[in-house]
Design goal:
Strand order of the largest sheet: 1-2-3-6-5-4
Number of helices: 6
Order of helices and strands: HHHHHHEEEEEE
Largest sheet: 6 strands, antiparallel, barrel
Mean pLDDT: 74
Radius of gyration: 28 Å
Low-confidence stretches: 63-78
Number of strands: 6
Shape: elongated
Structural class: alpha+beta
Length: about 180
């Protein structure tokens, strides 16, 4: 008899537990992404949700486009609202290409090689050289490297390495790892 009571209590607990779990709303959107254990799959989930959120914002008509115009003025409805600027917190850790893509930039393609002329070279407080290029970009060394020497007027090539690292070379035998400063 005590075994039957234990079995009945166990069955009741299972049925009630299942009913309670079914009554709980399933996590959706960003909440569901937080429950994904694999890092790559979790990041892909967040990327999908961010794209869906952006799409929803773009398809929603702005309130100003549907508001009545003042006398004599005409209303021109936008087909899509202007892209939202990311806050610094939202942009932290994103690549420039990703920021352009989210903000509606024209191109998020990756350039693998860039050729430019050095306009100026300076040294920052940590002993790393900083290179100002003729295209307006500023690059700095990741580690100080006294063997890498360039001067104004030299042509350099910046190539993409593994894991979005970059290398600046002045000839076939001289290169240094750099990061974009501006």
């Amino acid at each position: 008899m005590p075994h039957i009571r234990k079995a009945m209590a166990l069955i009741a607990a299972l049925v009630l537990g299942h009913a309670w779990a079914a009554a709980q709303p399933a996590p959706t959107g960003f909440e569901s992404c937080g429950q994904v254990s694999d890092d790559k799959e979790r990041l892909a989930c967040f990327d999908r949700e961010l794209a869906l959120q952006k799409e929803r914002k773009q398809t929603a008509a702005p309130a100003s486009a549907t508001a009545p115009a003042s006398a004599g003025a005409s209303v021109v409805a936008r087909s899509t609202p202007p892209p939202a600027e990311l806050t610094p917190e939202q942009a932290m850790g994103l690549t420039p290409a990703k920021i352009l893509q989210i903000q509606g930039g024209t191109s998020a393609t990756k350039l693998n090689k860039l050729s430019a002329k050095i306009e100026g070279v300076s040294t920052n407080s940590s002993g790393r050289e900083v290179f100002r290029l003729d295209n307006g970009q500023v690059w700095s060394q990741v580690e100080p490297d006294s063997n890498f020497t360039v001067q104004a007027g030299d042509t350099v090539i910046i190539t993409r390495g593994a894991l979005d690292s970059f290398f600046m070379s002045a000839n076939a035998h001289m290169n240094t790892r750099v990061r974009r400063a501006q």
